[in-house]
Amino acid sequence: MELELSNKNVLVLGSSKGIGRAIALEFAKENTNIVAVARTEELLVSLKQECLVLGAKSFNYEVMDATVKNASELANFLVDKYHHFDVIVHCVGTSLVSRNINGGYNDWEEALRINALAAIDMNSVFIPNMIEKNIKGHIIHISSISGHYLRGNPLYASSKAFLNAYVTTAGRELASKGIILNAVMPGAVAFEGSYWDKLIKEGNPKCDDFLRHHQAIGRFGAPEEIAPLVVFLACDKSSFMPGAVIDISGGNM
Predict the structure, then answer these.
(1) What is the pLDDT of residues 142-167, one digit of tens each?
(2) Which of 193, 247, 242, 239 has its CA nearest to residue 215?
(3) pLDDT band at residue 96 using 50, 70 and 90 as cut-offs
(4) What pLDDT is attached to residue 222?
(5) Does the pLDDT value for residue 192 go beyond 90?
């Protein structure tokens, strides 16, 4: 399938490892101009080399933490430097936040900021820039199946549910402006250094129990299985899907 993404300007936030890294590599195959944002420069340098080999037209990177408060300031910096993006992928967030449901405002705010609010704050810059420049763009958020089934860490699941609601409601509002806002909800994905990867290497019985009771497919997913869906959502062939939040979880149950 020809996705017609060649020469598009693509921003991938949270791109140095795991799902974000796989997404950047997949966009490289489509001959796009990539701007990658992450916190570890060494990993970004390595990613740049691989993306250019795979066919990226250009690759730039910025060493930044995209989950900070006032993330809109980072977005303004990126727009000032790179002018515009046709595609934006927010691959940020973590379940490794407080699990204390009685932790009060600070704990809940941190979970929301890391998993939803920082990306939404950046969109408050990116979306008006797209509208001003008449860009028919695509914005994709990496959510989690936890935001649908509301299992696991309550603060994480709630923050991803908030993100899903934002994507659905804001996606409807933006559709008439030619901006397609979507989210994908990966399930249990294992990659080097991930939560599940560590448990697998430890031989933790929690892995077998989880696969037996919660994964219809009977295995963990891989970042390379998530990335192609994200790239499809970045092309105009997905334009009839505004506000869609898509399960890609191995039949999580």
Answers:
(1) 999 999 999 889 999 999 999 999 99
(2) 247
(3) confident
(4) 96
(5) no
**Strands annotated E in the chain:** 9-13, 33-38, 58-63, 87-90, 138-142, 180-186, 245-248
Residue whose entry in the numeric block shows the structure tokens 């923050």? 159
Q: Token digits for 132?
A: 């001003």
**Joined tokens for residue 248:** 């890609």
User: What is the distance of C-alpha 40 from the center of its chain?
Assistant: 17
Question: Which burial class, exposed, middle or buried, applies to 251 when counting CB atoms under 10 A from its CB (0-12, 13-18, 19+)?
Answer: exposed
Taking the domain 9-248, which CATH number applies?
A: 3.40.50.720
- Please state the domain extents for the chain: 9-248
CA nearest neighbour of 164 among 187, 137, 143? 143
Has residue 1 got a pLDDT over 90?
no
